[in-house]
């Protein structure tokens, strides 16, 4: 069965904790920006850049600013822009690979992701005003100027060839950007309300598990061995209720052994290892796993100027859980569903990981409320304001067209590899949030940064974090220390010494 595709009309169900939708009288172009943007992007003459003062820096000269990007695909685009100065990015549009270029010429030797190379798509060229390198340079003062405002998203948008920010005060931001010397033809501002994470509190009326075998019927049953995409609950200190979410994917970790990845915001404290218990069932069953790692928040002064637009930043909404003794799991498998009802018909097998998700890529996600949903990536590698945490932002996040529901948090995002009935998948990330502008959208963290912030190893293959069914590294190549597909009960011997630091380019 193919994943359930929601109506493109997006008539979403009402949500118990949805943000207030702003009712604002805007021009048609402001509301339907994509419909009013000229796809030919007629280029105005690039402005003469003068040395301009703005807080917190005394002066800047855009010609000397080192471009700052915070992850794939932006790093890939920057490298291409260095090799091909006119390059502005690429994306999928109407089934065609569209390459942005100032010269109107597609450079030869583009470094495309494997998933794009395999498709052999016809190519179009899109003439643009700015190269990706130029926009990356403008991003530095742009981000620093936005630091004092309430914003939801900041992106180097390869489709619109602009810096794009979703903010709550467009007039105030525009005034500040003008004062900072940033020309208006560099950016687009969109009015936005507040983001809501997709957490949903479980209560004592959650039904008891119908099965305790590996042949469980739905993702809400107690499935043993544990696989990815199942319903999970997490203790709330001092409460008889539990947070409800979704297991992302099973891992074999160099330090923590067999476990799984899900959202950090499902735990009591983001950025802190609370050692909280996880249940899969969700009631009348013992705890199956314990939180063992939650990457600390990074203070903006620990990163180069222009990287973190808030007081604190992280690159993923992800936490690591290790299975308790006696709890079996199957590496590289997650539930395949027949419908939004959660009935398990088969299992997806993880063949590889997608390191470079891109705009226009078709992906799916699974959540314990929404079920299995097909969607498309709308925005790649954008900074995302994490309203769940005061003064903190998630860097290099991905936006999809179809928004998750409360309780879908942590569920796997994936792309189908080969024929649908082959049941092989590429892990792309885990879902964490939804946002409102003109419509509801979903947000996920990518595999590159999930693994970078999951207590990785610097000297083992796969960073010491296996996800693939065959025990290999998927698209990364090589093999690690895991046991491969099948039941994982043993602990992997720990590697003493170095833990790989999180770099701004994920390397």
List keywords for this structure.
507 residues; mainly beta; 10% helix; disordered N terminus; Thrombin, subunit H
Structure description:
The chain has 507 residues and is mainly beta. It folds into 2 domains: 64-192, GMP Synthetase, Chain A, domain 3; 210-451, Trypsin-like serine proteases (Thrombin, subunit H). 10% of the residues lie in helices and 32% in strands. It has helices spanning 28-31, 33-36, 74-83, 114-117, 132-146, 170-179, 447-452, and strands at 4-5, 87-93, 96-101, 123-127, 151-157, 162-167, 187-191, 196-197, 200-202, 226-228, 231-235, 242-246, 249-253, 257-262, 277-279, 289-293, 298-299, 312-314, 319-323, 329-337, 344-353, 362-367, 371-385, 392-400, 412-416, 424-436, 440-446, 465-466. The strands form 3 sheets. A 9-stranded antiparallel sheet has the order 9-12-11-15-16-19-14-13-28, with no helix packed on it. Strands 22-23-24-27-26-25 form a 6-stranded antiparallel β-barrel. Strands 2-3-4 form a 3-stranded mixed sheet. A hairpin with a 7-residue loop joins strand 25 and strand 26 (424-436). It is globular, with a radius of gyration of 22 Å. 51% of the residues are buried.
Summarize the main sheet: 9 strands, antiparallel
Number of domain modules = 2
Counting H and I runs of at least 4 residues, what is the number of helices?
A: 7
CATH class of the largest domain equals Mainly Beta
Determine Rg (CA atoms, Å).
Answer: 22 Å
In terms of per-residue confidence, which ranges show pLDDT below 50 for 5 or more consecutive residues? Answer: 1-60, 203-214, 475-507
**Hey, roughly how much beta strand do the residues contain?**
25-35%
Task: Give the overall average pLDDT.
Answer: 77
Distance between the termini: 37 Å
CATH topology of the largest domain, what is it called?
Answer: Thrombin, subunit H
How are strands sequenced across the largest beta sheet? 9-12-11-15-16-19-14-13-28
| Class inferred from helices and paired strands | mainly beta
Q: So what's the overall shape?
A: globular
Name given to the CATH homologous superfamily of the largest domain: Trypsin-like serine proteases
Helix content: 10-25%
CATH architecture of the largest domain: Beta Barrel
